[in-house]
Specification:
Helices cover 32% and strands 18% of the residues. By secondary structure, it is α+β, with helices and mostly antiparallel strands. It has a single domain, classed as HIT family, subunit A (2-Layer Sandwich). A hairpin with a 3-residue loop joins β1 and β2. The structure holds zinc ion.
Length: 137
């Protein structure tokens, strides 16, 4: 078992565990964006969000909610982000699904650099049709 998160969950290697429920564990990220940056990890090994069975998402999101409340309270935050990188092209580096929760501060200079596109009337309709069709499959 070489997955670092599986080894943390099995208590083979140490981590600062913040919270645990039937399906998920929350730990402090050891390389935080800001102090208090936490990771919520399913107890079972799934490589990314799409591999997590629907019935396990409830426990994950309850853990995110509880830990986010606690981080906001601990640091008296005005805001925070939670996010997940799925696939190496999206920045995933540990291939055991996890959700990041990180404090945010004014002028902390963390940002996506975005160039927003515009839809024309046809493209927005065909885009939605393509995704709706995939949901029906
Ligand atoms: Zn794992």
């Amino acid at each position: 078992m070489s997955c670092i998160f599986c080894r943390i969950i099995a208590r083979e290697i140490p981590a600062e565990i913040l919270y645990e429920n039937e399906g998920a564990v929350a730990i402090l990220d050891v390389n935080p964006i800001h102090y208090g940056h936490a990771l919520v990890i399913p107890k079972k090994h799934y490589k990314d969000f799409l591999e997590v069975p629907e019935e396990e998402l409830g426990g994950m999101m309850r853990a995110v909610h509880i830990v986010a409340h606690a981080i906001v309270k601990s640091y008296a935050l005005e805001g925070f982000n939670f996010f997940s990188n799925n696939g190496s092209i999206a920045g995933q580096s540990i291939f055991h699904f996890h959700i990041h929760i990180t404090p945010r501060y004014a002028n902390d200079n963390i940002r996506f650099v975005l160039q927003l596109k515009k839809y024309d009337d046809t493209t927005i309709r065909t885009t939605a049709e393509k995704i709706r069709a995939a949901i029906q499959e």
